């Protein structure tokens, strides 16, 4: 920009001179910015050194009768008006106002959202969260969850013996199972009247571009590994077996056979028929069918085996309402309440006595192997072995890079 | 003259007045500077620092600052395809949005000039989509373009799509979504320049025996350059970093992931913050260079 000559009128010259002195020079601004940037850089470097575990705040449950519960979709009994009948009953009985939030779509993304607050011991806006075994294992290891007081949860006596002592939480000091379930195959009954029995059938050319899988690595890769003859519960397998499964997965993604890799939102794709067959979680299919009011989707555990997992209640470290959360857990460990929930969500209930209670509530479910699995069903379900931190990081990167097409 | 009457003291009190004026100017600038420091510079510095970290060997999910420049090489090596794809999609979306918006803006701003009421009505229609969250609009498109939706069924009936083809989860859907979402950003700046287009210059072109095409090329187009430049910038920059349209929750799939999705996955799923930060810085740097070259080439620096 070239400067025009100043006007000859002395008055105007003076005005312009005055205006010019008001301009802050570009150099001054840059200097200021540089100095602030340096200060900020110093500040940023000096923080974040401590890796001390956060400590739990005082429990205010006595005076604060509220509770925030974060959970997954299709995971609590719901009526046609969108109310949760068992939860309403709990609120009336206990006087605790519960805010139920379908906030978890994926263990990883939920963890990423809340981990910084957890590290600082702050409230994450949830006093009870249901997360999967391996994530609970990580949270316990990092000291991000509170110890449960079993005296406040007398119904813990109903906990199924097989779930009482997992390797990540012996004696259930920090966590309590909410529901367990299988990952298996779902299909659109109208388009695939013959159903599915094996993972191989998902790779049928006729289904090209109409197959969905879960974004939960342990379920999708677990099913593929089982189909390749690997015992995913055993400690024997390692990088080689995992990579073989990733290669198969990569092949099906690159060829366009697999359309979507998703968390709970896979339900939308099944409903609008973008996917006709998918790897899904056992109970969701029934919930989706109930929502649609028709028996549109089928579910089966593949003949080579499905994965078995549990989602567990934990109380995040920053919560000041642990007592209320424990009251909630105790309530859901009553057999008749557990049976009511199971009849709706169709997952495996961890509560002993729920089967007997189910006979009164919904007798048709008593023999449903997805809710009360028999020996045969359980023998075909495998728990993905616990991964070391290094394995977890590496495998998760491998799995993600397939989804990103990288 | 009143003017000369008050210049006297101003000239004499020049030095002290200037100092006071400078202070006031600084005071007025303070909120802006504070805003930039707090919401632009601080995150930027923190991002640069994060991009040079390496994972801690003892604590899972923690990173230590080690001046690890290799992070940049690694992400370029791993994700070059997604980076290139992002800019290609952004370019395509910008071109399509321009081709669509120019005639529209011309119609509203020039042809409809004599009917201001129609003009404002049409403008409202252009802005109307903003009344609904773009997430919801994109989800609606996902529904419309889904396999059993009206678009795919019609195209299949006309044999324009094969029996196994689909639209959602393909690059076509992503570019379509980007174009759709950014059309208002292209249209409004174009409208503001075309609305001020001096019709006498077009008449002059005609008087000088130029045909409509020549007039457009030599008169209308150069005069509307400021609108084109700001429209393309407003479209291209956010489109290159967009991760919603290309997300598999919306219109994208595994073959159409953009750099935004890669950053999201690294930040939220893989917890690989250094890689995500390095990609963000790279994205910013590339855009800065591209935009710098573009603005220089189109010779409109002083119009921005």
UniProtKB/TrEMBL annotation, chain A:
Localization annotation: Periplasm
Q: What is its main location?
A: periplasm
Q: Is the keyword Transport assigned to this protein? A: yes
Instruction: Kindly state which keywords UniProt assigns to this record, in alphabetical order.
Output: Periplasm, Signal, Transport
Q: Which residues form the signal peptide?
A: none
Superkingdom is Bacteria
Q: Zinc-finger: is it a keyword of this entry?
A: no
What the entry lists under SUPFAM superfamilies is as follows: Periplasmic binding protein-like II
Protein name (record): ABC transporter substrate-binding protein
From TrEMBL, chain B:
What Gene3D superfamilies does its record include? MetI-like
Q: Name one Pfam family in it.
A: BPD_transp_1
Membrane-related topology note: Multi-pass membrane protein
Highest taxon of the lineage:
Bacteria
Q: Which UniProt keywords apply?
A: Cell membrane, Membrane, Transmembrane, Transmembrane helix, Transport
Q: Where is the ABC transmembrane type-1 domain?
A: 83-294
Q: Which family does it belong to?
A: Belongs to the binding-protein-dependent transport system permease family. CysTW subfamily.
| Protein's name according to its UniProt entry | ABC transporter permease
């Amino acid at each position: 920009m070239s400067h025009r000559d100043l006007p000859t009128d002395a008055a105007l010259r003076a005005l312009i001179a005055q205006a010019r002195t008001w301009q802050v020079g570009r150099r001054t601004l840059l200097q200021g910015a540089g100095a602030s940037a340096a200060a900020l850089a110093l500040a940023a470097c000096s923080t974040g050194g401590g890796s001390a575990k956060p400590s739990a705040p005082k429990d205010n449950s006595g005076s604060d009768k509220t509770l925030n519960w974060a959970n997954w979709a299709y995971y609590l009994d719901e009526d046609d008006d969108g109310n949760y009948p068992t939860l309403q009953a709990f609120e009336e009985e206990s006087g605790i106002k519960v805010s139920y939030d379908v906030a978890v779509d994926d263990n990883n993304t939920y963890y990423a959202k809340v981990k910084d607050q957890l590290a600082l011991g702050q409230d994450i806006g949830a006093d009870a969260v249901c997360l999967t075994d391996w994530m609970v294992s990580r949270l316990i290891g990092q000291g991000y969850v509170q110890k449960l007081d079993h005296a406040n949860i007398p119904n813990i006596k109903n906990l199924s013996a097989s779930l009482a002592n997992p390797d990540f939480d012996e004696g259930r000091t920090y966590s309590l199972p909410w529901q367990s379930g299988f990952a298996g195959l779902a299909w659109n009954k109208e388009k695939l009247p013959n159903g599915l029995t094996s993972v191989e059938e998902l790779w049928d050319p006729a289904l090209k571009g109409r197959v969905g899988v879960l974004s939960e690595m342990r379920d999708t890769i677990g099913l593929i590994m089982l189909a390749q003859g690997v015992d995913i519960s055993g400690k024997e397998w390692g990088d080689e077996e995992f990579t073989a499964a990733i290669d198969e997965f990569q092949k099906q993604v690159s060829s366009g056979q697999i359309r979507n890799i998703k968390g709970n939102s896979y339900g939308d794709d099944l409903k609008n028929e973008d996917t006709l067959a998918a790897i899904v979680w056992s109970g969701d299919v029934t919930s989706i069918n109930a929502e649609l009011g028709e028996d549109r989707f089928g579910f089966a555990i593949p003949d080579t085996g499905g994965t078995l997992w549990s989602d567990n209640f934990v109380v995040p470290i920053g919560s000041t309402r642990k007592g209320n959360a424990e009251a909630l857990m105790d309530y859901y460990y009553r057999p008749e309440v557990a049976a009511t929930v199971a009849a709706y969500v169709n997952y495996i209930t961890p509560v002993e006595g729920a089967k007997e209670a189910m006979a009164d509530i919904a007798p048709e479910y008593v023999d449903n192997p997805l809710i009360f699995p028999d020996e045969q069903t359980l023998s075909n379900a495998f728990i993905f072995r616990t991964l070391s931190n290094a394995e977890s990081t590496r495998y998760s990167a491998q799995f993600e890079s397939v989804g990103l097409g990288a | 003259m009143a003017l000369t009457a008050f210049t006297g003291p101003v000239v004499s009190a020049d030095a002290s007045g200037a100092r006071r004026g400078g202070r006031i100017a600084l005071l007025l600038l303070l909120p802006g500077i504070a805003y930039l420091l707090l919401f632009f510079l601080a995150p930027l510095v923190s991002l640069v620092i994060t991009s040079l970290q390496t994972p801690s060997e003892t604590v899972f999910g923690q990173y230590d600052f080690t001046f690890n420049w290799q992070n940049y090489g690694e992400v370029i090596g791993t994700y070059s395809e997604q980076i290139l794809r992002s800019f290609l999609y952004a370019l395509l979306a910008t071109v399509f949005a321009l081709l669509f918006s120019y005639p529209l803006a011309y119609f509203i701003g020039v042809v409809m000039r004599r009917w201001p009421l129609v003009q404002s009505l049409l403008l409202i229609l252009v802005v109307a989509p903003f009344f609904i969250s773009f997430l919801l609009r994109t989800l609606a498109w996902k529904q419309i373009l889904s396999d059993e939706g009206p678009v795919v069924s019609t195209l299949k009936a006309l044999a324009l799509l094969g029996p196994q083809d689909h639209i959602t989860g393909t690059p076509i859907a992503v570019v379509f979504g980007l174009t759709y979402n950014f059309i208002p950003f292209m249209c409004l700046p174009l409208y503001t320049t075309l609305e001020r287009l001096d019709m006498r210059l077009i008449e002059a072109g005609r008087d000088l025996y130029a045909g409509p095409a020549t007039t457009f090329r030599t008169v209308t187009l150069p005069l509307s350059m400021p609108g084109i430049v700001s429209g393309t910038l407003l479209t291209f920059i956010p489109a290159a970093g967009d991760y919603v349209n290309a997300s598999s929750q919306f219109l994208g799939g595994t073959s159409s992931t953009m750099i935004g999705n890669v950053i999201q996955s690294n930040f939220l799923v893989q917890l690989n913050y250094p890689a995500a930060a390095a990609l963000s810085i790279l994205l910013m740097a590339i855009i800065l260079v591209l935009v710098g070259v573009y603005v220089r080439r189109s010779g409109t620096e002083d119009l921005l």
